[in-house]
Amino acid sequence: MTPNSPPSVAEWKAIVARFQQPSLPRALWQVLNTVGGFLLLWALMHWSLAVSFWLTAALAVLAGGLLVRVFIIFHDCGHGSFFASRAANDAVGFVCGMLTFTPYHHWRWEHSLHHASSGDLDRRGVGDIWTMTVREYLAAPRWRRLAYRLARHPLVLFFLAPAPLFLLRERIPSAGARKVERRSVWRMNAAIAAMVALLVWWFGWKPYLLIQLTISVVGGAIGVWLFYVQHQFDEVYWGRGEEWDYTTAALQGSSYYRLPKVLQWFSGNIGFHHIHHLSPRIPNYNLERCHHSHPIFRAVRPLTLRRSLRALRLHLWDERRRRLVSFSEARRRRAQFGTELPPGHVA
């Protein structure tokens, strides 16, 4: 392995192997402080409605953060990494799926496709943020360019879309889902309907909707932001066909989002996304230790909070320059070249 080349598969597999072992005490403690904390905050929000809406809103921020952490447990269970037992992963994953309104087995299948194709320009469209190349955008009809700009607008992406995505879209199986994944959606829908009916009966439909929708909006915005910056930043990696490389896509195409410790806790260490994409079998509570275990991981340039905000201006992949660029840069390209490719542009 040279300083400028990615490690071989054999090299990184040997490094990560010892971090792939789940810990039952750590997993149980995380379930207790996360799921237990989320349920406690839900009850506190109901109590706070009689005191002050602003207190309810403040608690909603904490509950939304904990909902993200619940989703990380759900996510790890889907990878079979949270517990050593598959039955335990499936059981806890299903419960967390009810709390996040996400069908466990269906999501697990779709997410596996994301891991297999992340950073591959020829396999976009499953479990990722809609990303067009400059060439595709310039050649697209006006309605498609408008749809793309709306889909990438922060107001839509982080505030309007997340709640409908989890509350409504996840109720319908994907077109390519197999029978087992389709059935998992219907089972989850039935379980969620029973949970909602019980909570509405217990708390009343108005308090339930106010609390649940507030938490969903906050948690959804945080969750989609985290997912966005995991693969949308200035030095991200994308490749086509035979040039695409799994190791490079993990270490360069997935961000190391260095967050303050409190935000790292709420986000379940998912900021170490380069480690996660390299080895999804590592549970979230081992990601940080794995990152610090070897220079090849520490050499990955961290994405800071300030730098991550700059990623909001980057929307299109420029294959010639091999980086994400802004709409304004694409407009300059259109003025210079029209819809034709500039000399030397990669097809």
Description:
The chain has 347 residues and is mainly alpha-helical. 62% of the residues lie in helices and 3% in strands. The strands form 2 sheets. Strands 1-4-5 form a 3-stranded mixed beta sheet. Strands 2-3 form a two-stranded parallel sheet. Helix 10 (179-203) crosses helix 11 (205-231). The chain is globular. Mean pLDDT is 91; it is low at 340-347.
Features:
347 residues, 3-stranded mixed β-sheet, two-stranded parallel sheet, 18 helices, 3% strand
Q: What is the general shape?
A: globular
Overall pLDDT confidence:
91
Distance between the termini: 30 Å
Number of helices: 18
Strand content: under 5%
Number of domains: 1
Query: Residue ranges: pLDDT <50 for 5 or more in a row?
Result: 340-347
Strand order of the largest sheet: 1-4-5
SS class? mainly alpha
**Rg from Cα:** 21 Å
Main sheet? 3 strands, mixed
Helix-strand string = HHHHHEHHHHHHHEHHHHEHEEH
Number of strands: 5
Helix content: 55-70%
